[in-house]
């Protein structure tokens, strides 16, 4: 009986010393999906593991529909901007060639080349407008996609809060606290 008493007293003394230390935290945070990191040259990653865009879309659709909608809208704007810019660049190229052909033809004195030159100037104006509208649309689409990542991360942070269990000293000796 003396041995059991001595062991119990020793155990309580060790716990008393342990309780005098700073808080000891045991974290139980394990979210279903981690935070998305995005850098310009690197692929998307969640907790250090690279994921594809389609995997992100599936996660966003399942966990945060607002981020999913924002990502899809941004992707549509980006693709539209790329198409507008590409068509505008091709139009500038062809209109410039046509304009130079018209200028060369004007030196011969033909009125046909005057019409070609005026049409080429109109083509340059339209192409410039496509480029001028396509690039901002492209950039805005990229920003919306980045905002989608931020919105997704905020949603994950708010949904999966830290739950910690701490062992600390209290008025009555040792206490355990669960912090949400």
Secondary structure blueprint with pairings:
Blueprint: H1 2-20, E1 24-27, E2 36-37, E3 45-46, E4 49-50, H2 53-63, H3 65-106, H4 112-159, E5 164-170, E6 173-179
Antiparallel strand pairs: 1-5, 2-3, 3-4, 5-6
Helix pairs in contact: 2-3, 3-4
Overall description:
This protein is an alpha+beta fold and 180 residues long. It has one domain. Helix content is 67%, strand content 13%. The chain has four helices and six strands, in the order αββββαααββ. The protein has a three-stranded antiparallel sheet. Helix 2 packs across helix 3 and helix 3 packs antiparallel against helix 4. The longest helix is centred in the last third of the chain and has 48 residues. It is rod-shaped and about 125 Å long. About 9% of the residues have low confidence.
Key words describing this protein structure:
rod-shaped, 6 strands, alpha+beta, 3-stranded antiparallel beta sheet, single chain, 180 residues
C-alpha-based Rg, rounded: 33 Å
Helicity, as a percent range: 55-70%
Main β-sheet: number of strands, strand sense, barrel status?
3 strands, antiparallel
Rounded average pLDDT: 77
End-to-end C-alpha gap:
42 Å
As a percent range, the share of strand residues is: 5-15%
Task: Put the structure in a nutshell.
The chain is of the alpha+beta class and 180 residues long. 67% of the residues lie in helices and 13% in strands.
């Amino acid at each position: 009986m003396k041995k059991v008493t001595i062991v119990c007293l020793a155990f309580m003394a060790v716990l008393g010393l342990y309780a005098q230390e700073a808080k000891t935290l045991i974290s139980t945070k394990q979210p279903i999906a981690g935070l998305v990191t995005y850098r310009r040259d690197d692929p998307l990653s969640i907790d250090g593991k690279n994921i594809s865009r389609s995997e992100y879309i599936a996660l966003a659709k399942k966990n945060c529909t607002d981020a999913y909608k924002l990502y899809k809208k941004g992707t549509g704007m980006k693709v539209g901007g790329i198409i507008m810019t590409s068509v505008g660049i091709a139009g500038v190229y062809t209109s410039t060639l046509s304009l130079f052909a018209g200028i060369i033809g004007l030196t011969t004195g033909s009125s046909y080349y005057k019409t070609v030159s005026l049409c080429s100037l109109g083509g340059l104006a339209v192409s410039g407008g496509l480029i001028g509208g396509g690039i901002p649309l492209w950039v805005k689409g990229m920003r919306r996609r980045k905002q989608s990542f931020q919105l997704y991360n905020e949603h994950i942070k708010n949904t999966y809060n830290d739950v910690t269990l701490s062992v600390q000293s209290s008025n009555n000796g040792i206490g355990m606290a669960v912090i949400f």
